[in-house]
Design brief:
single chain, 468 residues, Methylamine Dehydrogenase, Chain H, 2 domains, four-stranded antiparallel beta sheet, 1 helix, 5% helix, elongated
Length: 468
């Protein structure tokens, strides 16, 4: 008998193991386009190619204005700077990895001879490639096969910009340096004893973005500088589009000036740290700290988050309505995402700010339970959302039965609405945190219907719509 039991157990374990492996084979990850927290430190554009240098995840490339992005083979470095010359893309890396070069628009990469420096900035004049490092500026004239340290060899160089034969270097403490002979000699301009994070040039105007002191302007190649009206921000990035100057700031998004810095206006992207800006035609791209790349096609009046928005998502809720799949994201600025093609691609719905813990559907109605903001309702597949009367609770669970909508909350039990959220009534289960709700039987008029609630104090049951 003991042998029979052993054989039976062995077969059972083998069967269970095989079934586990079978189940594993049936799953594939749906990527919420694309991969939370993409930290974009650098951007560069060449023709239809947009390159984004990220922290930790290397270089991404888009060929359709950011609608989709592909991670290139340079995929495990922190890329602080990018520069493009023809089909050559140069990537300056953190952690002493120096400069990488791609000669095929990012499909493959090789490390150049500058392979042991932190490269914070890159700039190109003709065949001359300049790299700003923690030990000054390096120069290559042969696509990175060889590098020579220029005369600026003892400063931490954060930014570079070129204007005809002039090259300007923004440094960590010592302001802006200038060379007019490809780095053989450098002179310190009158903007000194200040950290210069970004540089941009528009005709004869040179703009310098600083730490805490906003933007300075020089109209005479750096001989003199004037502080502009944007004078109290940390300016991480600068870009020029026609007569418009854009400034990416720390924590305050993007500012625009249409009069060479006399006045500045904060654009609609107003609460992000923007580390990089790039311009292509009328398109302005902003690389942010933790929220990927944003795009504006109307000079910053409006911004749209491109597909390069998030890396890993905390998906707390999923619900399917017809061909639509909705995902509730459990992070700030997450909200609800929608896929109409079985998870191949996703886009963020207009409910894009709250943490979403729960989702439920009833015919054409989609309900979203949120952190501290109660329940939201969409009647048009997420195009628009309205906050229901239950608007100040943290909702952990939702369930629908006929016209009855149950919302499980933190500390305050279950609420019931019978009119799509216009009004809510707290049920008799009113003192526990509700983590899950399940309903047995589809008809709320059915005397056999049972509502189960999983709580922080075990499972509760009601047979009369939560009245008891």
């Amino acid at each position: 008998m003991k042998k029979i039991i052993i054989i039976f157990v062995t077969i059972l374990v083998l069967h269970f193991t095989l079934n586990i492996e079978y189940c594993k084979a049936q799953w594939e990850q749906c990527i919420l386009t694309p991969p939370i927290d993409i930290f974009v430190h650098s951007l560069s554009i060449s023709g239809n190619y947009i390159f984004a240098g990220t922290l930790y995840n290397g270089v991404y490339r888009s060929t359709n204005n950011g609608q989709s992005w592909t991670q290139t083979d340079l995929n495990n470095k922190s890329v602080l700077s990018l520069a493009i010359s023809g089909n050559n893309v140069f990537a300056g890396c953190h952690n002493n990895f120096g400069v990488y070069l791609s000669e095929d628009n990012g499909q493959s990469w090789t490390q150049t001879a500058l392979n042991n420096k932190i490269v914070l900035a890159l700039a190109i004049i003709g065949n001359y490639i300049f790299a700003g490092t923690e030990s000054g500026v390096y120069l290559s004239t042969n696509n990175g096969q060889n590098w020579t340290q220029t005369a600026l060899n003892d400063k931490y160089v954060i930014s570079l910009a070129v204007n005809e034969n002039y090259i300007f270097a923004g440094t960590e403490i010592f302001g802006v340096y200038r060379s007019n002979n490809n780095g053989q000699n450098w002179i310190q301009t009158s903007l000194f004893n200040i950290e210069v994070l970004s540089l941009a040039i528009n005709d004869n105007n040179i703009f310098a973005g600083t730490t805490d002191n906003g933007i300075y302007l020089s109209t005479n190649n750096g001989q003199t500088w004037t502080q502009t009206a944007l004078n109290n921000q940390t300016v991480e990035a600068l870009a020029v589009l026609g007569n418009n100057i854009f400034a990416g700031t720390r924590d305050s998004g993007v500012y625009i000036s249409t009069n060479n810095g006399t006045t500045w206006i904060q654009t609609a992207l107003n609460n992000k740290t923007v580390y990089s800006l790039a311009v292509s035609g009328n398109n302005i791209f902003a690389g942010t700290w933790g929220s990927g790349v944003y795009l504006s096609t109307d000079n910053g009046t409006t911004w749209t988050q491109t597909a390069l928005g998030y890396y890993y998502y905390f998906v707390d809720a999923l619900v399917v309505s017809g061909n639509n799949v909705f995902a509730g994201i459990a992070v700030n600025d997450g909200g609800v995402y929608l896929s109409t093609n079985n998870g191949t691609t996703w886009f963020q719905t207009s409910l894009n700010d709250p943490i979403v813990n729960a989702l439920a559907t009833s015919e054409n109605n989609i309900f979203a339970g949120t952190f501290l903001s109660g329940v939201f309702l969409s009647t048009n597949n997420g195009t628009t959302w309205i906050q229901t009367a239950l608007n100040n609770e943290t909702v952990e669970a939702l369930a629908v039965s006929g016209n009855n909508i149950f919302a499980g909350t933190t500390d305050n039990g279950i609420y019931l609405s019978t009119n799509n959220g216009i009004t809510w009534t707290q049920t008799a289960l009113n003192i526990h945190t509700i983590l899950s709700i399940a309903i047995s039987g589809n008809n709320p008029e059915d005397s056999g219907q049972v509502i189960f609630a999983g709580t922080d104090n075990g499972v509760y049951r009601s047979t009369i719509n939560g009245q008891n």
